[in-house]
Amino acid sequence: MAEAAAQDLLLAAAFVSDAQYNRNIPFKTSPEAVRLYHLYNHWMMRIATYFFIFLNLSLALFEEPAVYPLPFLATSVLEVLCLLVFLGRLTHFAKVTLHNVFWKDTKNICIMVAILLSLTDLAIYGVLRMYDVRSIRWSRIVRPIFLINFAESRQIRRAFRSIRNTLPEITYVFLLFMFSLLMFSLMALKLFGERNLQTAEGLPYFRNYLEIVFDLYVLVTTANSPDVMMPAFDFSSWYTLFFIAFVIINTYIFMSLFLAVVYNNYKKHLKNEIRKLAYMKRRKMIEAFNLLKEEEGEQFVVREARWKQLVKLVAPDTSSSHRELLLCISDDEQKGFVDKKSFVQLADLLNIQVVTLRVRRHPLARWVPALYGSAPSQLLRRVVRHRAFVWTYDAIILINAIFIALDEESPYISYAEWVFLALYIIEILLKVYTYEPREFFGKTQFWNWFDTLIIFAALTATILNATLKSTLKYNSQQILDIVFILRVLRLIRIVDSIQRFQVIMNTLINIVPTMLTFGGLTLVVYCVFAIIGMELFHGKIQYFPANSNAPHALECGNPALKDSLFARGKYCKNNFNNFASSFIVLMELTVVNQWHDILSGPAKLYFIAFHIVMVIIIVNIFVSFILEAFFVEYSLEKSEVETAIERKIQELGMGVQEDELQYEQLLDNMESAEHELEGEGGTKPQSKGLVFKIASKRYRTVDALLQRMFEAEIPLEDEGLSFEEILNLSPTSAVPRSPSSESTA
Amino acid sequence: MAEAAAQDLLLAAAFVSDAQYNRNIPFKTSPEAVRLYHLYNHWMMRIATYFFIFLNLSLALFEEPAVYPLPFLATSVLEVLCLLVFLGRLTHFAKVTLHNVFWKDTKNICIMVAILLSLTDLAIYGVLRMYDVRSIRWSRIVRPIFLINFAESRQIRRAFRSIRNTLPEITYVFLLFMFSLLMFSLMALKLFGERNLQTAEGLPYFRNYLEIVFDLYVLVTTANSPDVMMPAFDFSSWYTLFFIAFVIINTYIFMSLFLAVVYNNYKKHLKNEIRKLAYMKRRKMIEAFNLLKEEEGEQFVVREARWKQLVKLVAPDTSSSHRELLLCISDDEQKGFVDKKSFVQLADLLNIQVVTLRVRRHPLARWVPALYGSAPSQLLRRVVRHRAFVWTYDAIILINAIFIALDEESPYISYAEWVFLALYIIEILLKVYTYEPREFFGKTQFWNWFDTLIIFAALTATILNATLKSTLKYNSQQILDIVFILRVLRLIRIVDSIQRFQVIMNTLINIVPTMLTFGGLTLVVYCVFAIIGMELFHGKIQYFPANSNAPHALECGNPALKDSLFARGKYCKNNFNNFASSFIVLMELTVVNQWHDILSGPAKLYFIAFHIVMVIIIVNIFVSFILEAFFVEYSLEKSEVETAIERKIQELGMGVQEDELQYEQLLDNMESAEHELEGEGGTKPQSKGLVFKIASKRYRTVDALLQRMFEAEIPLEDEGLSFEEILNLSPTSAVPRSPSSESTA
């Protein structure tokens, strides 16, 4: 009984720190519920949920106005299917959660309301359609709610919470910014309003107050600089002082201020969340300890047998040697029990990605030892491991880059392509021959995987293309495009051979997972704005191919656009006629430039709203996130965060810290370790032919790093706050009141 | 002898913390040298130096190509004069510095070389000119060196040092960014190069590799979005994916990365400088103590008489009551001597801006006590102090804003202007009647000064304008413009009545002084680029007024610009024909938008160079600075940094912390204190009718705040490092190795 409860707590603690699950909520603990919970969190179930969320979102592609039209019946059946899946998922969740908790959680209520709204709207729309009455499918705006509220997208919810917390402060800055904008507009009206100046298009310049406000708002985004200044500048050079003051105050200072507010809140919030997680984990581990403890001398401890049983229950897929290692660390002096301090570390221990490197011989060494061990083979392997081998291939990549840039027409150059492909394949084969293949394609060998995939994709595509060309005399442009891109991507590898670039690249690779969160966030905002945009601006602008004879083809099918910058810039394809082009237009608006041209007319408010939400808030959060990720990376460069556990693994002589060793050295090291073991005949009982490698810094997430940093700050005695206190920790209370860390915050 | 030396050290310590002087350098200590040193630092001398630096820089306005042409003889005489002044200043500096130190300092060598170069170039140019040979005045680029290297512009030098330190890291990121740019360009060449696509202007699209690189570089700055994408988008919507990937990686990630690197270095550097200052001050104070100390019981102390003498020597302009206060704080228990700990604080004590608020009666209360104390007068004063009085004037300001926005033509509205002016003047008079005038116009009453100046300037200008109009029937546009601007500026005051806005406004006001540094930095970069730009592009583009009949007037006098976007946008005035328009063009380039249009042709490299220096480095430093200023401000909102000194002043009951009290309350408080004193007949010997007010947070600089924060971290026992060690503190060693502050750094 005690073990089951302890297991549950330990599981919860392990999950908390896993940063994947949100086990803040007390779950049911019956075996049935636990089984259901495991099923709920099974990767297949989660992938299926994501699939239906994205299917539901992508329905907008097939509904009117459609990119690929499907009959209404088909899309509505799909939508009902999605909604049923969501309902099923929610029911599943209800089964594993305590009832009062389930019904208190706003996100569950949210999902239910969204399902209900969607069904109602679908029914109304269907009925009206039968009577040929066209109505608006307003419930489509609700669809992103599923993406936000399903438990799997915890990161997105966190981002939304962070935005919500930032809003009050952003609002104050925004009001001040608007005040400044209105003041400057008033000055502009007074200074230029009665000068009868004209813009480059011959329109009246700065006559109407609201137009001035809009023009100056656009100037803040720098999109209409210097055009908006030119008429005043032509009139008198002194008037540029007005615009310089405007740009300094509004573009530089206020926009930085927005970034400062967003960043400050982002960080405060991040710290608070991580603090909560750390407290929660500590708390749960202590509870588990209290359930399992027995008295031993003067202290309470957990005995070895019980401890092992627990670990087997909690982490059934760890190898027994891994468990041995964990015990070695927890029961340092081999006393046969684990004390409180070490027990509390267990959740962290389980979370450390310890890769068991079986010191394996190369398969060829086992199969054909004579050949593999022969002098030429050894020489070859030594050559491949030599630095010069890397340099040679770096040189080859550079030459290849030149060949790619050269004209493709000459037959010699297309032959050269085959030569390069062959060289790259030889490189991979040589490396696999030299290094142990399972190690070479290890989970953490990002560049090896990258290389191999790119080269084999290129090989396949090139062969396919050549076959098509020679047999069907047909040149597939799509395949060619892919071949081109793959060829260029091959060149990226050169970056990894320079140490300084590696640091930057590692951080960039690290932030990819979190960037997906921003992808989700952007998707939500884009979906909402695209659906609104399609309702408002659908069909206003038409795109005609270059040689079309349609009336108003040059004015994008809209006579009002005659002679506009929009038509002159050939922007006709930037329209809201379907979901896909709406997304592209919104992307252009995110980049900001020319947005006043892209949407002229009554769309101004729509665009200001989009600018505030997307550029001022979300892009700034994105920038904050990147800034933070690099600050963490830079600070780690100096002070390596090394926990007691890692040190212990090192002490036991079973650790290989990947960062400290080049990949080649690592493998050399392994081989020598192998010889040593053979020679000594296993004098180290713990190692049993294993080397533990701590998953390298390169593959740690920013979250995990921050969490570890914070944990170092909590003293062990601090059993901390109760669950309720932890859950209600506010960002302000969470920040420790130390002036030095404040100042740097 | 000991006193003189101690005084010198104390002076030095006070100066160090003053952040105005750079007394890192051992100075001569003879009385003659000290006199010379004081002369050197006299404000007149410093203003004169600045005057000549700016005169020297502004010579570019009068030299060929000139805004206001002056004969060569005049400008060269002025230049020689400036150079002589610089030489004089340098000689003066040499007189107060130790010889070996003077000659080791690169900035002195720099100035000498610059003077020599300028003179040589001037001579060569003059001689060649006599023989009518035109040569380039290349030494003009050297002129900003004087701005950078004169000791007064320490802030600018610090900024340059910070840039120099950032360069290596920036370079790595930049190389990686260039690599990414080249890769994408290669892909673009392969994907679009052979499609025969055309841009909106009918030019070939993405054919030439170098042009692609340039176009994509421009896209990173977002200046040609979405134009650069449109031909590919028209061809196939899928190609937008290429541009989306490009923008995410290069515009969002790499540009944020630049900001991260710059910010990280900026902060590291700032911390290091402040750490150095704090150590230096501590060290000098301890040295001074050791010179003056006498044995008292078991400890060394400085006796009261000696201490007073020292303070009088060091800070001759403090009032005796201020000195009494300082002694009260230093000699807490009135033992007749000051111990080491308190002595070390003296430099800080002297630097705290303690404003001695003499509890003064209103002058009218002294002159006409019967009238001022009468019931109607008291009622009036109570009305003025009431919150409703502020609200009434806020309402008046809003109504005024509406009137300003309305048309000026109607006579009623121009009468209304007089009414508003009268109302504002009445407000100021009422306030002066109610509050003590010297207090109302105190040094720290920013808004009172602002109000009064704006209103009286507006009054003067309006009267001047009305007089000109009625007597000479002449409407001066300049005066009218000023009146308009002043009228609008009056409205700003409304912001100060909302508490939340005040925090933001205070920070904005706080950063103004440091922004001047960036002004200096920008000036240096602009000068260099303007001078190069004038040599390269002078006369390439001509500006013609709107109705000119000159040939190629529409093409800015350059047939090559026919049908270009440059000519179509009427950008002709954006040229490098003189120093002033060069500055305006560079400003436009700093804002970035349209820069590819503003400078087409061979100017690409010039612009990429400018973009890297100005936008990637300097604007990012500026943004970093604003971010830091707001982070400090936000962190102070929560944890008020209160030193022992301030607490002491509070304890003694002589402090009034302005922030805690509304201005009105403060004055009320003062009056009640006055009554109390009268009643009690001076039972508190220290107060002597004085209240000390600690200069409010609002007027502290970011530097001072950071310094104070850091000082709290140094323990008193830490006599710290030697001078050499302090001077050689590197940014990395300076950062304390605490993981928590690292993580937040």
Automatic annotation (TrEMBL), chains A, B:
Signal peptide: none annotated. InterPro entries: Ion_trans_dom, Volt_channel_dom_sf. The chain crosses the membrane at residues 43-62, 68-88, 109-128, 170-189, 209-226, 238-266, 388-406, 412-434, 446-466, 507-532, 605-631. Keywords: Membrane, Transmembrane, Transmembrane helix. One of its GO terms (molecular function) is monoatomic ion channel activity. It is a multi-pass membrane protein. Residues 47-268, 387-635 form the Ion transport domain. Pfam families: Ion_trans. GO terms for cellular component: membrane. It is found in: Membrane. Gene3D superfamilies: 1.10.287.70, Voltage-gated potassium channels. Chain C. This is Ion transport domain-containing protein. It comes from Zosterops borbonicus.
